[in-house]
Write a structure and sequence with these properties.
Homodimer. The chain is an alpha/beta fold. It folds into two domains: about 1-155, ATPase, nucleotide binding domain (Nucleotidyltransferase, domain 5, 2-Layer Sandwich); about 205-385, ATPase, nucleotide binding domain (Nucleotidyltransferase, domain 5), CATH 3.30.420. It has 15 helices and 14 strands. It has helices spanning about 65-80, 115-120, 130-145, 165, 175, 185-200, 255-260, 265-275, 280-285, 290-300, 300-325, 335-340, 345-350, 360-365, 390-400, and strands at about 1-10, 10-20, 35-40, 45-50, 55-65, 95-100, 110, 150-155, 210-215, 220-225, 230, 330-335, 370-375, 380-385. Strands 5-4-3-2-1-6-8-7 form an eight-stranded mixed beta sheet, with helices on both faces. Strand 4 and strand 5 form a beta hairpin. The protein is globular. The termini are close together.
Length: about 400
């Protein structure tokens, strides 16, 4: 069976085509075809990059009026031109979509129907940057492949079994009745990493206590016991929790009240400040990209150093909170852009937990290639670097429906 995966973001669109047989493989397969569209470099222009399992690569820039038209152009490269991988789009058996917010109603991957589409649109109030673009991807596929089943794989679903003590906010109870609660995000990534950790350790996932650190431009932690998320740092929105690239993470809500009392501050301005101009970017004044922060520090930039210090402080504090929820730890996982690539962040985060017998192998930490255990042989806690594969996890979820 051929599974098409669409992973839509606010400024990019990734897509992969996998071919699975009747037996689902344990390890991720290489996509037959994968493509990415980027809208960030020039307004009204889409940058398309495509590569195939055979090694063919293709790039182009083109003017784009709508996301639907752009997705259609991207999918054309599946069955036309030098990156042709299939003869006809009708060879696609099922399509899986990452959908960021499933609310309280959708706690597992779901076959998309008109009612599900309405729910995704309704839940856009909780995820205004992501759910609308997820819906556009669904509708683009409907136009191209009206008879092919589509699956919504919700980022919030992995956190559906959080205990009430973890997901209920200590405000008025009416908040909970109105859907204001902790939902958690990055669930597809955390789910994949937990399963991959069990494979790497040759252990039963049901017996493991894990902390998964998804550290990219967006950052979140998940405390995972027996394969189930029991605590996480992101909340009602992806703004809560750790310091991130351009997002503040958790702050004193009194700051919001203080700022709103100023006549020149609106909800829209606050949204922009907290989501786009805070975090590493806001403190450093340089960038939300950890690589550029490092370069600025090497040039003596004190604000960049402060930004990194805050980032590490809050990461350690978050890991400590997850540790308390678990009551112990078998493995600490680092994943996503910063987690997979920053040896410094991994080392400084782990330093704080030497008291519990966690010992990092410095050489392994510096020379990570692929998925690897970078703890010393005698470490009481394993430390794993795992390349997260959200697209493959979405494909796995689709396979269950076929």
């Amino acid at each position: 069976m051929k599974i098409l995966v669409l992973n839509a973001g606010s400024s990019s669109q990734k897509s992969c085509l996998y071919e699975l047989n009747d037996t689902q493989p344990d390890r991720p397969l290489q996509p037959l075809w994968e493509a990415k569209i980027d809208w960030t470099h020039q307004q009204g222009v889409s940058e398309l990059k495509v590569k195939t399992a055979k090694g063919t690569q293709f790039e182009e820039e083109f003017a784009s009026e709508s996301r639907t038209d752009t997705i259609s152009r991207m999918l054309e490269t599946l069955w036309k031109g030098e990156t042709q991988t299939i003869n006809d789009l009708n060879e696609i058996d099922i399509v899986g979509h990452r959908v960021v917010h499933g609310g309280q109603d959708y706690q597992e991957s779901t076959l998309i129907s008109p009612d599900v589409k309405k729910a995704i649109a309704r839940l856009a109030v909780f995820a205004p940057v992501h759910n609308p673009v997820n819906l556009e991807g669904i509708e683009a596929i409907e136009n191209l492949l009206p008879n092919v089943p589509q699956i919504a794989v919700f980022d919030t679903a992995f956190h559906a079994q959080l205990p009430p003590a973890a997901f209920v906010y200590p405000g008025p109870y009416e908040w909970l009745e109105n859907g204001i609660r902790r939902y958690g995000f990055h669930g597809i990534s955390h789910q994949y990493c937990a399963r991959r950790a069990a494979e790497m350790l040759n252990r039963n996932l049901a017996d493991l206590r894990l902390i998964s650190c998804h550290l990219g431009n967006g950052c979140s932690l998940a405390a995972i016991r027996g394969g189930v998320s029991i605590d996480t740092t992101m909340g009602f929105t992806p703004l809560e929790g750790l310091m991130m690239g351009s997002r503040s993470g958790s702050i004193d809500p009194g700051i919001i009240i203080h700022l709103l009392r100023r006549s020149d501050i609106t909800a829209e301005k606050l949204d922009n400040i907290l989501n786009q101009n805070s975090g590493l970017k806001g403190i450093s004044g340089v960038s939300g990209d950890m690589r550029q922060i490092g370069e600025a520090i090497s040039q003596g930039n004190e604000r960049a150093q402060l930004a990194l210090d805050i980032y590490i402080h809050r990461l350690r504090a978050g890991i400590g909170a997850m540790l308390a929820s678990l009551g112990g730890l078998d493995a600490l996982i680092f994943t996503a852009g910063v987690g997979e690539n920053s040896a410094f962040v991994r080392a400084t985060a782990c330093e704080a937990f030497g008291f519990m017998g966690l010992k990092l192998d410095g050489e392994k930490n510096q020379q990570v290639q692929g998925d690897e255990d970078i703890a010393t042989a005698d470490s009481a806690v394993r430390v794993l670097v795992i390349h997260t594969q959200e697209d493959w996890e979405i494909a796995r979820e689709c396979w269950k429906f076929y």
